[in-house]
Design brief:
The structure is a homodimer. The first copy, chain A, is built from 6 helices and 3 strands. Chain A is mostly helical and about 160 residues long. Chain A has a domain of about 90 residues: Arc Repressor Mutant, subunit A (Orthogonal Bundle). The structure holds a DNA duplex (30 and 30 nucleotides).
Chain lengths: ~160, ~160
DNA sequence: GGCCAATATTTTATACTTGAAACTTTTTCC
DNA sequence: GGAAAAAGTTTCAAGTATAAAATATTGGCC
């Protein structure tokens, strides 16, 4: 049995410890994914992220929408999309009657290329997170989903 | 009751869903921390990370040690430490009798500055993760810690 | 003593990232 | 209809990030 005093002291640091572990775990996995994407598909994590977002949106997304969805800055998306366009994986056009808004979507080549990457990516994640049993994964997901929804309400 | 078929299909995606949530949650928190560090202390997350690592090592750390601990590349640490040195927060020296190895540690000014940042940082984390109860935080921590140790063994 | 592999770090080229300023186009409102 | 605000994006400067090549130093080994 843990003393009440010890419990309180531990409460004070439980969230900080969790945060540090979240950060390190995420970084370790990202590191591994980055390396695999580079060797297997000669691409990068940000490029994959953009393509993944666009794959979910067959009608395309606006630049700002992409930026908000990926939680990265506006100008950042510009650069990544630029390189994807020059590689022929992404197409840019304009929204009807609004020459401000740019609509980006995957090209056919982009969609094909992404399909292969997504399949490999899913396998990799399943392999890398193998030490976490499906039940534990579901529990953790639920905790994080709840957290996120509370977060959204505050912001 | 969930059917066996549904359960198996869900198992296939449980880890991938968990990963996507981990990534988004971590990014959202990092984003908020970055902003607060900038406004409150005119510093950045990477600088904070380096200083936090050095604060835990009163005798200093080698560059490579720092790089491995923070899970970032070797050359990356060079740049961040360079800027911290030019701001007088970090001191570089050499290990006795080995002019290859560079030892970096916090200066007195660095230690004082970091103390203030660390206190604010701990408060922020506690505030941002408030929706997660201490018990849930401990559970999650444990899952992640177990995962990490399995990970280490594989690598 | 001198070569050579191993160790530790920096440099380089390229890409990613941010916040803020600048730019273009649209909408609002008088 | 025209000024001004708003919306959407890009540009910019600085900092962060990587992998790979280059540099410098040490230790072993003949």
């Amino acid at each position: 049995m843990v003393s009440a005093v010890a419990r309180v002291a531990d409460d004070d640091r439980a969230r900080l410890r969790l945060w540090l572990r979240l950060l390190r775990t995420t970084r370790a996995i990202e590191r591994e994914l980055r390396e695999r994407l580079a060797t297997a598909f000669d691409t990068t994590l940000p490029r994959f992220d953009v393509m993944a977002a666009l794959d979910r949106a067959p009608d395309g997304m606006m630049m700002g929408e992409l930026s908000r969805f990926l939680l990265v800055s506006n100008g950042n998306v510009t650069g990544i999309v630029e390189r994807l366009v020059s590689d022929g994986l992404v197409v840019r056009s304009h929204r009807d009657g609004d020459r401000r808004a740019a609509i980006v979507r995957l090209s056919d080549a982009g969609r094909t290329a992404f399909a292969a990457m997504a399949a490999a990516h899913a396998r990799w994640i399943d392999e890398l997170l193998a030490p976490i049993e499906p039940d534990a994964a579901r529990d953790l997901s639920t905790t994080l989903a709840t957290f996120r929804s509370q977060w959204e309400n505050d912001a």
